[in-house]
Amino acid sequence: MPEPKIRIENLSYAYAGVQALQNITLDIAPQRITVFFGPAGGGKTTLLRLINRLNDLTDGTAMTGRILLDGKDIYAPATNVAQLRRRVGMVFALPLPLPGTIRENVTYGPRLAGVRDARRLAPIVERSLRQAALWDEVRDRLDAPANALSGGQQQRLCIARSLALEPEVLLLDEPTSGLDPLSTGKVEAALQELKKTYTIIIIPHSVQQAARIADDAAFFLQSKLIEARPGREIFTTPRDKRTEDYVTGRFG
Amino acid sequence: MNRYAQQRLGFIALGAVTLVVVIPILLVIGNIIAQGLGAISWEFLFGMPRAGMRAGGILPAIVGTILLTLGVALFAIPFGVGGAIYLSEYARDTTFTRAIRLAIINLAGIPSIVYGLFGLGLFVLFFGLGVSILAGSLTLAIMTLPVIISASEEALRAVPTEFRTVNASLGGTRWQGIRKIILPQALPGIITGVILGLLRAAGETAPILFTVAAFYLPRLPQSVFDQTMALPYHLYVISTQVPGMPLQIQYGTALVLMTLTLSLNLTATLLRRHFRKRRQW
Questions:
Q1: Could you say which of A57, A59, A109 has the minimum Cβ distance to residue B164?
Q2: What is the value of pTM for the model shown?
Q3: Which structural domain, as residue segments, surrounds residue B75?
């Protein structure tokens, strides 16, 4: 197995006095789709948000353990958090276009990073929208307001917005939970293309989706990591009784 | 009584209450216009007062009020909006910030004459600014700050948190998010708060009593260290302190003050509409 892109070591995390993650150790392989799955409240989203330090915005938290990106501790004091978040992009469950046009949404991250030249931004816009499988639908109206797009298009716009920064890792938190099957299919197809260059961690909105797209899968239950193995193994021959019960729909 | 009748009764009661509120306002405005319009002339608006203010114009008072309001805007907007940004976007919820918020709420309830005495003590005497436009503007600005801070903070908090998260996730610093997303979204609410504060400052008499207002000074101020006449104080003077004052001049002065504040109000409404049109959520 190649060097892990992300290594999570003995990670425990609590906020507002509630233990959200207990002693998680997990390696994430590069250029694969890793799925975090399990019932709600298991700690999947919390772990995802810890990987690009979005939980920094929350008060009253306590963390022990380490998260390494390419072998470097992302919680080390010298870490440039803005820089880290450019390397580790995030897509949320509810698509939220920023105020402004489609083009402005895609270029927001690069502009903050200091790229202002329209001639340099134009190819970024096209590449990102193509990667998110949205280009053909919006190429003629890049300067239309972003919130005029349909829900499915908005979510792909949010993916494109993250991709504009060429992150090394893409985190997706139930990105298709509000989408119709057709849009979901487009997003999943886009992810299969993206994993050739990016490391992808996704929280799927169903076990079916998890089984469809997972190269690797990690099952979370009540703030613990129960089992982490290649996807085709975990969904066909789970080792842990609790994983088996969840995968076969006996509880959830 | 069925629900439909209850609803009708509710509508009638609420409508009656609204009328009770609106009618006096309309009566006041109508009365001032009816009695004051006759006084309005070129000389009244652009002339100096003569004959112990019983004749001539009120230009120094108009200019004084405009200058004071501008001075308040200059001091209160940056500090007020800046403070609101700090409280809403940067400050953590600690005992200290809660104390600050409580203090701001309390400041809004202090009688304006107290601000006047405070301004006299601090700006006029301690800082040695003398009775001047500068001292008066600063006093009015301090009185206006709580209004601007509270309204601006509320407007900033009304912007969904998710925008801040998205900004952070795209490598934006807190300040970049504020400048590019949060502040533009909150602008309509901030403008409303700012104008409400300025309106109050423009119409106040007590805070300028000891800090800037001149009883009778028939010339325009030359610098920010000059005293000046101001409309609210002038109105108070000619209504109570000068015997034999023609009623029409009093009403004319009130009409000018009212027009000034209403037009400021109108500007706020138009600005707000302009910025809200650009808001897209």
A1: A57
A2: 0.84
A3: 58-277
